[in-house]
Amino acid sequence: MAKYERIADDLRIKIRKGELRPGEQLPAETPDLTTQYKVSLPTVRQALRVLVAEGLVEKEHGRGNFVRRQRRTVMRSNDRHQWEKDRARLPHDTRKETGATEHDTGLTVSDLVFSAEYRKTEANEDLAAVFEVPVGTPLLERIYRTRYREEDAPFNLAHSYLRYDLVAANPELLEADNEPWPGGTQSQLHSIGIELDRIVEHVTARPPTAEEAEELGIKEGVAVLVLRKTCLDTDGRAVEVSDVRLPGDRTQMVFTTPLDRW
Questions:
Q1: Among the listed ranges 24-33, 121-130, 163-172, 222-231, which one has the minimum average pLDDT value?
Q2: Which CATH class is domain 3-67?
C-alpha cells in the first residue's frame, strides 16, 4: 500500500469511528499531518484528494480541510414506479400525503421545498426520436427541483417532457401552479386516460459541468449520474421522457430483478 493510501485509510477510519466528527476541521496539512505521518506535503495532499473524492472530506479554500457533513441520502429503486402506479387512482387526499421523493428519502412532505417551472417547447432530434414524432412537435417541458428543508442543494435536476397534444386534454396539466400534483406523473397521465405499461431507464455517469456542480453542491471529484427515463403506455407509445441529473455522493441506485424459477 502506498504512503498516501495508508494516510487516507487512517483518516477514513477515524471519520467512520467518529473520532473526527462531521464539520470538524482536520489537522493542518503542514506541519501537523506531514509531521504525524512523516511524509512530504504532496503525499498528504494526495491522501486528502482521495477522501475528497469519496465525499468524506471537503476542502474550504483559505480555511483548511473539514469532515464533510453527510447530506440526506436518496435511495432510488425500481420498485418506486409500481409504488407510484398503485397510488395513481387513490383518492386525492391519500395521494397528497406522500410522493416519490418522500418514498426515496424517508422524509415527509413538510420536510421538502419543491419548485416547478412549465414551458412549451419543441421536440429536438433526440426527443423526436424517442417520442416517434416529427422534429418540432410541441412538447410540455417541466423543470423540477426538490430539496431537503435543512439543505441548500436539490436532490437532483429534473427535466420532464410530455407531448403537448396529449396533456392539453386536461388543462390542469398545463399549469405549474397545480404542482406538486398528488400522485405524481402517473396520476396526471391517468387523468387523461393513459396507463403506463413499462418504464425504461438508462443510467450513465460523467463529471459535472460547472453549473451542475454549483447547483447540486457537488465537491471536486464527485460524478453526476445521468438518468434518461422513458415511460411507455399500454400501446407501447412513449408518453413521458425525463432527463435527471443526480449527485453521485448522495444517490444510491438499487435494481431488483425477479427471476423465473426453473
A1: 24-33
A2: mainly alpha
Please name the residue that has the C-alpha cell 407509445: 237
pTM of whole model > 0.70?
yes
User: For 65-115, what is each residue's pLDDT tens digit?
Assistant: 999 888 889 999 999 999 999 999 999 999 988 889 999 999 999 999 999
Q: Across all residues in the chain, what is the average pLDDT?
A: 93
C-alpha cell at 76: 432510488
Domain spans of the chain, in order of start: 3-67, 74-254
Query: By C-alpha distance, which of 162, 89, 174 is closest to 131?
Result: 162
Q: CA angle, corner 81, sides to 240 and 225, nearest 5?
A: 75
pLDDT of the residue at 86: 95
On whether the 74-254 domain is CATH 3.40.1410.10, my answer is: yes
What is the 3 state secondary structure string of the chain?
Answer: CCHHHHHHHHHHHHHHHCCCCCCCECCCHHHHHHHHHCCCHHHHHHHHHHHHHCCCEEEECCCEEEECCCCCCEEEECHHHHHHHHHCCCCHHHHHCCCHHHHHHCCCHHHEEEEEEEEEEECCHHHHHHHCCCCCCEEEEEEEEEEECCCCCCCCEEEEEEEHHHHCCCHHHHCHHHCCCCCHHHHHHHCCCCCEEEEEEEEEEECCCHHHHHHHCCCCCCCEEEEEEEEEECCCCEEEEEEEEEECCCEEEECCCCCCCC
